[in-house]
């Protein structure tokens, strides 16, 4: 599978004429000041909390946990089972984050539905509703796995080019979905006949 370079977000008016050292400084600043918005839905959220505590301490990597809300966050960590009912909320919160924004899918449930993949109400991976930068496997993954995922994301940020014009569209086929597209009836209406 060939990797496709997609357009990245515009950082400012002078980004096209900024010298390379300035671009390096901008990438460095984005790399080591990630404000995290944790969208914890199940047991993986506990492992996220463990990664932010003193033993693992991902703050030393330049990651600030527990942003006040999505409008102050650079990084969304989706951890746990995303149900079809919760999918519009995940998309809505992602849309509220300012560019450039990044997503880590943390755990098997978030990556692909996990052990609940065949359930009628489970979204088959958060990447079907928002673009994902890094996948962290496991059920639940250990805190060290999240640290590795953060380091992998920081490596990707360090190599981003700021001179590309346009908005980042990382979806397969550059598809974007509105929150309203992700809703469906929870219970099908009765087909014919009534109860007597």
Automatic annotation (TrEMBL):
It is a peripheral membrane protein. Residues 43-152 form the NADH:ubiquinone oxidoreductase-like 20kDa subunit domain. The chain crosses the membrane at residues 32-51. It comes from the Bacteria. Pfam families: Oxidored_q6. Signal peptide: none annotated. One of its GO terms (biological process) is aerobic respiration. It is found in: Cell membrane. GO terms for molecular function: 4 iron, 4 sulfur cluster binding; iron ion binding; NADH dehydrogenase (quinone) (non-electrogenic) activity; NADH dehydrogenase (ubiquinone) activity; quinone binding. Keywords: 4Fe-4S, Cell membrane, Iron, Iron-sulfur, Membrane, Metal-binding, NAD, Quinone, Translocase, Transmembrane, Transmembrane helix, Transport. Its cofactor is [4Fe-4S] cluster. It catalyses: a quinone + NADH + 5 H(+)(in) = a quinol + NAD(+) + 4 H(+)(out). SUPFAM superfamilies: HydA/Nqo6-like. InterPro entries: NADH_UbQ_OxRdtase-like_20kDa, NADH_UQ_OxRdtase_20Kd_su. The keyword Cytoplasm does not apply. NDH-1 is composed of 14 different subunits. Subunits NuoB, C, D, E, F, and G constitute the peripheral sector of the complex. PANTHER family: NADH DEHYDROGENASE (PTHR11995), NADH-QUINONE OXIDOREDUCTASE SUBUNIT B 2 (PTHR11995:SF33). NCBIfam families: nuoB_fam, PRK06411.1. This is NADH-quinone oxidoreductase subunit B. It comes from Knoellia koreensis. The lineage of its organism: Bacteria, Bacillati, Actinomycetota, Actinomycetes, Micrococcales.
